[in-house]
Design goal:
- The chain is α/β, with parallel strands linked by helices.
- The chain has two helices and eight strands; from the N terminus they run αβαβββββββ.
- It has one domain: Immunoglobulin-like (Sandwich), CATH 2.60.40.
- The radius of gyration is 24 Å and the shape is elongated.
Length: 135
């Protein structure tokens, strides 16, 4: 059994891997992500009380509404985030400054948005939003 060539091939492969990996991690090129999340409360949810909505109806109501995340100067939409039937939303984005807003479905208004956020890498920013539906 010839062990020397195996060691030589293993050393060459290890050296190649070290050089390859070191070239992939250049200073200033890594992206650090932060998390933004929150709870959306819709009020009222029904035009008439009592309001007893099934999951399919909740999906339609929350599904029509989106959280819109803009660049800090609002020149572009960075992301549209859906809202679960429980009213939760969340996403990860590169650290930086953003404007958080809603899509203003039908007669929706909110005193909570638009709001400027500074997202820090490795941290969670929570923005809860009340949407007045106008029903």
């Amino acid at each position: 059994m010839n062990v020397k060539p195996m060691k030589h091939i293993g050393l060459g492969a290890a050296l190649f891997l070290i050089i390859f990996i070191s070239g992939c991690f250049k200073e200033g090129e890594s992206t650090i992500y932060g998390t933004i999340n929150g709870k959306v409360s819709l009020s009222p949810m029904c035009a008439d009380e009592p309001c007893d909505l099934n999951p399919k109806e909740l999906e339609a109501i929350y599904g029509a509404r989106k959280i819109i995340i803009y660049s800090s100067d609002t020149s572009e939409v960075v992301l549209e985030v859906g809202i679960s039937i429980e009213g939760n939303y969340g996403t990860n984005l590169p650290e930086g400054e953003y404007i958080l807003d809603i899509n203003y479905y039908e007669n929706d208004i909110s005193p909570d948005v638009p709001v400027k956020i500074a997202l820090a890498g490795g941290f969670i920013t929570t923005i809860d939003i009340i949407i007045k539906t106008g029903l």
